[in-house]
Fold:
Amino acid sequence: MSNQSLLEKISSTDSLISAWRGINKSHEDSKGLSGLTIEAFANTLDNRIPAISSQLISNKYKFSKNKAVVIQKDNGKFRPLQIPEVHDRVVLKSLATEMESQFKTLLQGSQGVSFAYQKHIGVRDAIDKMKSIYDSGYKIILEADIVNFFGEVNKQTLLETAIYPNLPDETLNFLLHDALNQELGGIDRLNKEHRYLFENINTGIPQGNALSPLLSNIYLAPFDRFMIENGYKLIRYADDFIVLCRDFKEAEKCYKIIFEFIKDELNLRLHPIEEKDKTRILNPCQDKFSFLSIEFNGKDIFPSEKSVHRLRNKVRSICHDRYEYPTLLDLSISLKNCLDGWVSAFFYTQIERYEKELETLINRQLYFGLDRMMWKLTKKSLSKVPYEFREKGQSNLCLSHEQRVNSGIPLISDLIKQKRKINNAS
Structure:
């Protein structure tokens, strides 16, 4: 096995099957331009994997065009994404897995400061580290963001200077190049005001590509080393990062040093502090501060208002969309998954502060959902929305607590207990 080339490793059926198991299948309707779904691919897996393997090892594999899509960010702006075909996702995942192994030592140099796209660590670890550093006396936070990071990284320079020279052979070079330069299709299907987002898209690292997270960490590894060597308390999650400082003077000095390093060494731009938006210096006890969808006030951590807002909108969408969720079973499964996912992301925070509001929202939206399905609800199965959550000019009816329990839709409190119990047991 040790004499295998890199291409032989990523082309084996075992590697491809492992990659298939590792790709995100949570959005079954997510598909490329061909329309081939995760389900359809899975139904013919026994034929597809050997075919992909054969094409790869003979250097005949060709990546398909990606599908151009846009998603709305929390700030109302839109982010361009490129959605690969399912078979391309499998190949990209196999490539990414092998690349992670090859660059393991490099990435270990960022240990303790980089928390995105790595095994066994994530947002919670970043937040725990932030809280620990803050409690040790670093009370002022420099919050920073790189301008259009994925779009402005020169991927060809990245490949030629940081990737190719550090691989044991050249068998993956052409495949890696093609993987990061897939053609784009479907732009004509987008609204005209969104098409400009894909201008010069071939310059940067494509978002939506399984290699992109790894490449971002490789590209920013020199920044991590620089910060560690100079004793700065950096916490980075992809291109979003904060630095905890002892006072405002130290934070101002740190900003100037980082600004120059990002510009001179990485050929990127930091959002200027003068904009007072994405880059700023703050005291969380006095200024509203959130990082990675977690709000921190200098004492407590809890879900950010934006994350709660997203949950509210998702619950409303599930309960009101008669086309996507036409039956009670569809609605129930989707709502359970939605709540479970949200609580899983935030159970370690003070999530209880939103519990009453969210339970009321769920009970009310369930009432609307059942009403649109023409369910006959008795007075015993209904209740009134608590006064503080009532909306002017709207009915105050909602599902009763008893009916909610009987509905099979879990209570937020029960989900929190369940997640914390599992966490404590592990």
